[in-house]
Design goal:
The chain is of the alpha+beta class. It has one domain: Transferase(Phosphotransferase) domain 1 (Transferase(Phosphotransferase), domain 1, Orthogonal Bundle), CATH 1.10.510.10. It is built from 2 helices and 4 strands, in the order E-E-E-E-H-H. The strands form 2 sheets. It has a two-stranded antiparallel ribbon with strand order 1-4. Strands 2-3 form a two-stranded antiparallel ribbon. The longest helix has 17 residues. The chain starts with 6 loop residues before the first strand and ends in a 6-residue tail after the last helix.
Length: 91
């Protein structure tokens, strides 16, 4: 939903994901919180300041490239690996 509104979260980490009660279909509600680093999606590839969490940041964010939906998805993948293995192999 956030991406469809034209924004990137830029700070996905475990602390910013909240799991709630089950909804009427028996699925748990998952919400993102802390939009302090969120920014509008911009198609300009220029350099920018780093913002977010180093542990789950994409290689593009670490190179100070402007972030996009791709970077949120990469951060989510890193979170899932962390939850599965208990660590990230590169941290």
């Amino acid at each position: 939903m956030l991406h469809s509104l034209g924004f990137v979260h830029n700070d996905l980490k475990l602390e910013n994901i909240v799991v709630g009660d089950k909804n009427n279909m028996g699925l748990r509600n998952i919400r993102l919180i802390d939009f302090g680093y969120a920014s509008a999606i911009v198609r300009d590839p220029c350099k920018t300041d780093f913002c977010g969490n180093l542990a789950f940041a994409s290689k593009y964010a670490l190179r100070f490239q402007r972030t996009s939906q791709r970077d949120d998805l990469i951060s989510l993948a890193y979170i899932l690996v962390y939850l599965h293995k208990g660590q990230l192999s590169f941290s």
